[in-house]
Amino acid sequence: MARRISGRSHGDPRNADTRAKVKDDYRPSRDEILRYIAENPDRSGKREIAKAFALRGEDRIWLKDLLRDLQDEGLLNKERKRLTRAGAVPHVAVLDIFGRDDDGMLLAHPNEYTGAGSPPVIAIRISRGAGGPVPGIGDRVLAKTFPTDDPSGPAYTGRVMKIFEKRSEAVLGIFRVLKDGTFRIEPVERRQPELIVDKEFQNGARNGDLVEVEPARASRFGLPRAKVLAVLGSLSSEKAVSMIAIHAHDIPHVFPADVIAEADAVKPATLDHREDWRDLPLVTIDPADAKDHDDAVFAMPDPDEKNPGGVIATVAIADVAAYVHYGTALDREALKRGNSVYFPDRVVPMLPERISNDLCSLREGEDRPAIAVRMTFSAEGRKLRHSFHRVMMKSAAKLAYPQAQAAIDGVPDDKTRPILDNVLKPLWDAYAVLKRGRNARQPLELDLPERKILLKSDGTVDRVIVPARLDAHKLIEEFMIQANVAAAETLEGKKGALVYRIHDAPSLAKQESLREFLQTLSLSLARGAQMRPSQFNGILERVRGADNEALVNEVVLRSQSQAEYSPKNIGHFGLNLRRYAHFTSPIRRYADLIVHRGLIATLGLGPGGLTQQEADRLEEVAALISATERRAMAAERDTVDRLIAAYLAERVNDAFDARISGVTKAGLFVQLPQYGADGFIPVSSLGGDYYIYDETARSLFGERTGKGYQLADRVEVRLIEVAPMAGAMRFEMLTDPKPLPGSKRSFHKAKGRARASQSRSGPRGRRR
């Protein structure tokens, strides 16, 4: 029986009078719980729900069980520590405005929506007061969303916080002049059609130019037409492939004149408000081709007799906040970009070269301002204490990863030999200590090698390599992790504003999907809401060296949530850390710059600290930089696909060793491990049987034979077709289907599901 609450709505958990009137022998109904969560997206954790309904003791246990049931039924999702209605729009979301209703109110859809069915409609509220942004149809905006109670109207209303730069209806393509003198637009997106351009709409474009075109309305016959709006560059020039991704993803890549002028006018920092650390032999260890150096490290044994075997590890990070102040042109541009974007042929930096490669780069032998953290660890790798300092430093050496590793391995060179005993060996000793702490912490340990594309001078692919994973890489990684933890702990402990780097545990739905898949391999994953990385590590250890090792690693990776930024902490699941923030790369990530400013303000380290105005915007800023990070990842991935497709375009009809990287109803995605490239095999080309998709087993299997293909299978394929500028490749399968693990049970279950689906939807298509 649902309780009746007098006074103010139970939607406000701060109403003490309401809570006092609630009788102890009543509990809220399921509908009341769901309505409260929908109406209070900011206060939807278990504790807040219990507080809103005045639940105590056994009632809290009852609430926990009810919330779990609602999640299992798909009515609720858990995001961070908040519960949301299934398919609910986040409280702060990126929206695309698509039209108006009959009353003229703007309507929008979420830019990203993972719920079932069509995305909800959001009515945009326009503030009539001064100063608020006024959007229009076609705009992409950042907005706060609020659920409505009107079943006949939009599901949400939205209040606009920021308008992103307008995008026209233009699309990108490559301008081609055919032998007969006609003009075509070669698509750069996989689903984009080829277009015809009439001579009067050429607009100065030449063969091979990357152009922006406006498609015209499609005619009944032939290809649709388009007109060239702008020429963006020539594909015959260097770096043309990454330019496609830059324009396709709206990545700002040209600094405005006022930003360059502001950067050029900056004066080098002085010793004011700084400790003089220039005699401390900090060193930078980076990739050999690194152009900027934003972190330096040093370590020594702890001289304290009370900490035998302990070490003191020091990390110094470029003091970008000394030069980039809130509200300036430099700062606005850095926030707009959010992060640097790394392509095989170029870097699109967050900050101008004067800042990133000069004043803030910790160059060897030159005075540079930094914010440093000094951390003391016990012999077991447990951090005992830490302290932050604003310093002036001077790098003792600029080292590359292989160079530092070679010195430790007994092959020092002229630069590493003089610092081997007093700098490098203590660093490796400290890493051995920190590694003990990491092993005890047990973060998620996925084994997925990363590939690097090496280019020729003309910007085309030379070869693809898998760089060796050295202890030098792991050392720097662990030092940076510990510095990031120290920054989060300091700001949280002193009630300072910050943006956390958060990573949620896999959702219950993903856990269950993974559990069902593992059962097909006779592997088990324990149930329970409080999953830990060690449980996944146990699975990965059991398949180490087995034929299905790559498969299990891939599926475990896909079960994980995506990391993001937030002013509200839920911890970092993958690293198994309760609090974590990004502090160590302020040259290339705006999130780190916010943390630097927070430390400066909270610890009283001088000018350049976080302002109250900035602190009030952290929710908005966190959403923005999370979006720019996803944008950068997509652009980088697209560029790699295009480069590899162009590289393999001359090898049509060649056979390749491949691994199945995705399974869908429509066919198989395959990856060429040697190149890291992806392509597609349509299910219609598999032949010889009618193939059924088994989502649980990540497989396609034949209805007649029960044999098929599964995610991560090693196969041989033939390259049939390449669209280089779209980054698309089509293959045909050369490897015969095989019996699948657990195929009998999967076969009958999936076949039953397929037959049930076909009986509802009509006769099945032709046999393949």
Automatic annotation (TrEMBL):
Biased composition (Basic and acidic residues): 9-26
Enzyme class: hydrolase
Region annotation Disordered: where it falls in the sequence: 1-26, 734-768
Comp. bias intervals (Basic residues): 745-754
E.C. numbers: 3.1.13.1
Domain of life: Bacteria
Compartments where found: Cytoplasm
Database matches in CDD domains: S1_RNase_R (cd04471)
Keyword annotations: Cytoplasm, Exonuclease, Hydrolase, Nuclease, RNA-binding
Predominant subcellular localization, coarse grouping: cytoplasm
Catalytic activity: Exonucleolytic cleavage in the 3'- to 5'-direction to yield nucleoside 5'-phosphates
Ranges of residues in domain S1 motif: 653-734
Function: 3'-5' exoribonuclease that releases 5'-nucleoside monophosphates and is involved in maturation of structured RNAs.
Family statement drawn from the similarity comment of this UniProt entry: Belongs to the RNR ribonuclease family. RNase R subfamily.
Name the record gives this protein: Ribonuclease R
The organism of origin for this protein: Mesorhizobium montanum
